[in-house]
Amino acid sequence: MYDSVIFDHDGVLTTLVDISLLHDATWAAFDELGVTDPDPDHVEQMVINVSPEDVHTVAGTYDLDPETLFRTRDEFSSSYQCAAVRDGRKVPYDDFDAIRRIDAPLGIVSSNQQETIDFILSHLDVTDLFGVAYGREPAMSSLHRKKPEPYYLEQAMSALGVESPLFVGDSDVDIAAAEAAGVDSAFIRRGHRADHTPSPDPTHEVAGLDDLLAIDGVPVADETTVAGGEGGR
Fold first, then answer.
1. Whole-angstrom Cα distance, residue 181 to residue 196?
2. How far apart (Å, rounded) are the C-alpha atoms in residues 171 and 12?
3. Distance separating alpha carbons of residues 205 and 208, to the nearest angstrom
4. Dist. CA 45–CA 122, nearest whole Å
5. In what helix (H) or strand (E) does residue 157 lie, and over which residues does it extend?
6. Euclidean distance between CA atoms 102 and 225, whole angstroms
């Protein structure tokens, strides 16, 4: 029996933003730092899947402090995503309320910014649904801790006081983090993962959050006893 269920966030609980929004945020970050005409390749390096080496290389090109560049990039990325939440471009998936039936502690472990995760949960009025919600802190140290490293997943397990969670994600790094932490995983095959073959192999594969309720070992409350209604929609 699983003693908890922990979720990745983007692409699992809420829809992804268009990549163009993250590009715009990164251009704005460079402009904020006085770099008005950066090489588009350097902008691209700072949009997603950023490594410490990327930050140092790009910062050195423009005589910027790496930590300042990364923090500014994170701040603008978060700001733009929060704006997308406010105006309905980033929303919960239609099956979000299925997780209310899970009769076990819930958590979030995301590689998005902590500020972004906190804002989304508050905006949707679902903060209390999760016992813990981890995102990245706006510091380069977080790049060494994010998935596929199990650091934040293990932190969430400790905070929840659990040992046998099911970790639900939509990417290889989610499955790898679960494997590294020694816990089971569920790969959720949203539309953007329709043709993806996950590696490593997940413990389970589901089409949506509703399917989690049918997994052997996931504690499920009777539907008539679940409170909350449409708060996550």
1. 23
2. 10
3. 9
4. 31
5. helix 151-160
6. 11
**Calpha distance 171→196 (Å, rounded):** 9
Q: Is 226 exposed, middle or buried (0-12, 13-18, 19+ CB in 10 A)?
A: middle
Going through the chain in order, the beta strands assigned E by DSSP cover 4-7, 106-113, 132-136, 165-169, 184-188, 204-206
Backbone torsions φ then ψ of 187, nearest 5 degrees = -90, 125
Say which amino acid occupies 40: P
Q: Is the peptide bond before 198 cis (omega within 30 degrees of 0)?
A: no
On the 0-12 / 13-18 / 19+ scale of CB atoms within 10 A, 1 is exposed
Residues of the chain with pLDDT under 50: 228-233
**Residue 228 pLDDT:** 47
Q: Which amino acid is present at 34?
A: G
Do 124 and 231 touch, CB atoms closer than 8 A?
yes
Give CA 225 to chain center in angstroms: 29
At residue 24, the 3 state secondary structure works out as helix
Place of tokens 């969670």: 165
- The tokens for 34 are 């006085």
- What tokens were used for 213? 């309720």
How many C-beta neighbours within 10 Å does residue 44 have? 14
pLDDT in tens, 21-59: 999 999 999 999 999 999 999 999 999 999 999 999 999
Q: How far apart are CA 189 and CA 38, in angstroms?
A: 36
Question: Would the pTM count as exceeding 0.90?
Answer: yes
- Coil, helix or strand for 136? strand
The pLDDT value recorded for residue 11 is 98
C-alpha span between 21 and 29 (Å, rounded): 12
